[in-house]
Amino acid sequence: xxxxxxxxxxxxxxxxxxxxxxxxxxxxxxxxxxxxxxxxxxxxxxxxxxxxxxxxxxxxxxxxxxxxxxxxxxxxxxxxxxxxxxxxxxxxxxxxxxxxxxxxxxxxxxxxxxxxxxxxxxxxxxxxxxxxxxxxxxxxxxxxxxxxxxxxxxxxxxxxxxxxxxxxxxxxxxxxxxxxxxxxxxxxxxxxxxxxxxxxxxxxxxxxxxxxxxxxxxxxxxxxxxxxxxxxxxxxxxxxxxxxxxxxxxxxxxxxxxxxxxxxxxxxxxxxxxxxxxxxxxxxxxxxxxxxxxxxxxxxxxxxxxxxxxxxxxxxxxxxxxxx
Length: 324
Hints:
eight-stranded parallel sheet
């Protein structure tokens, strides 16, 4: 039997948890010191975290051409060290054939592995229907950015075995509004990201069914008009939730505080945007077909550039980062 002691994440009160096998056998107020228990008054006990944006982890990349179902299972197992027990494997902009491969491998992993099936909530397709402009496009390959295509999406959904549950796209692209409406009708959550939409285009996208801003504050121009810009508009819109990457690199602390106070805890989601290099030591590695550099401070950049390329964040770290 394994015994844990820590503070309940809601009440802050000390609790003693007894674990037998894979189940919690008991939870009670500790009667006194327990030298055999793990944890203590400085530890917190909480349910596993949910991560809506995981591109890879521990050297495994969902977007690699040679990704296997076994890689997917390894990520599902390894994410426990990040506090994550449920997640959305994220497949980013690529050729149609490459997307079919990645989606099919994830679907196969869910079919053959009970653990993958239990922990994977659905697939997050980030792209390929994104802005082609430098800045908003981020690290997505320009050669494969394209206009929304519902026929293509239905083929991708078929390759995924119906497991695409969320898609991030740019709402200003021709055909985007019709695509959003059809995706909403099909039960797919539409998120806005890597875009440069005007106020009118954002309002129309929400009216059509968009519900979330993907990693708000990132995937955008380095310089914007001080008043009329898509960051303010997404912050102000009560119909849009927001996900943010709070790793100390993607967003300055003042921006995190502003987004939190604007959206509130009820409409804000912490994501890692972890890439395959997450969990690996500093140095050069590969992720989504490119060479990336993990720096000593834990940030992940496109090698030889100042541009971020996903993150090395373990999601549990984002919680104290936000609280600070």
